[in-house]
Each structure stands twice: as C-alpha cells, then as structure tokens.
C-alpha cells in the first residue's frame, strides 16, 4: 500500500452553483457524450476544446457538467473525476 492510499480524505472539487454531478452513459462522437445527471435529467454534454486532448473521458466516468441556461437537455463538461475520487464521492454520499 502506497502512502497516498492510506485512506486519507482528499479535497475534491465540488460542484459550483450551476454545476451538477453526472455519469457518462454513452460516447456520441464529435466531442459529445450522453450523461445522466444527479438531478435525474439525461443530457447531451459537450467536451470543451481545453479538455479534448488532455483528459480522456470514457463511459462510466463521473464528471461535472454545467447545464445550458437556454436549452436544458444540453450541457458542457467542466471536470472529470479519477476513479478513486469517484469512489470517495460515493462513500461520502454525494453520488449514487
């Protein structure tokens, strides 16, 4: 067991007022993914250019999305959690 696996709580990025937790359910191509948000809404989320080459997003990943004001079924991905971070969010009851 390495030092960073000692069970200590990491400070995770939490959603801002206009962001919600979501799980990636389907890769749609063209920098878009289908997500199931914590508020129960299925949305099509866009992966912004600053994330496309640096962060790989796969089905089952937990992400933060920012729903569009003018079109509720669409959103932008703002953050992706690592697997260990997603597990910690589940343990703390933030997501199912």
TrEMBL record:
InterPro entries: NA-bd_OB-fold, RNA-binding_domain_S1_IF1, TIF_eIF-1A, TIF_eIF-1A_CS
Pfam families, alphabetized: eIF-1a (PF01176)
Keyword Protein biosynthesis: yes
A GO molecular-function annotation: translation initiation factor activity
Keywords of the record: Initiation factor, Protein biosynthesis
Signal sequence, start to end: none
S1-like domain span: 8-82
SUPFAM superfamilies referenced in this protein's UniProt entry, alphabetically: Nucleic acid-binding proteins (SSF50249)
Matching Gene3D superfamilies: Nucleic acid-binding proteins
HAMAP family recorded: aIF_1A (MF_00216)
Annotated function: Seems to be required for maximal rate of protein biosynthesis. Enhances ribosome dissociation into subunits and stabilizes the binding of the initiator Met-tRNA(I) to 40 S ribosomal subunits.
Family per similarity comment: Belongs to the eIF-1A family.
Protein name in UniProt: Translation initiation factor 1A
Organism: Halorarum salinum
């Amino acid at each position: 067991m390495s030092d960073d696996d000692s069970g200590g709580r990491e400070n995770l990025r939490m959603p801002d007022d206009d962001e919600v937790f979501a799980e990636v359910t389907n890769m749609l191509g063209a920098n878009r993914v289908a997500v199931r948000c914590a508020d129960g809404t299925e949305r099509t989320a866009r992966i912004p250019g600053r994330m496309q080459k640096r962060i790989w997003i796969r089905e089952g990943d937990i992400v933060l999305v920012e729903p569009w004001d003018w079109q509720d079924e669409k959103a932008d991905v703002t953050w992706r959690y690592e697997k260990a971070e997603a597990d910690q969010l589940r343990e703390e009851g933030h997501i199912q």
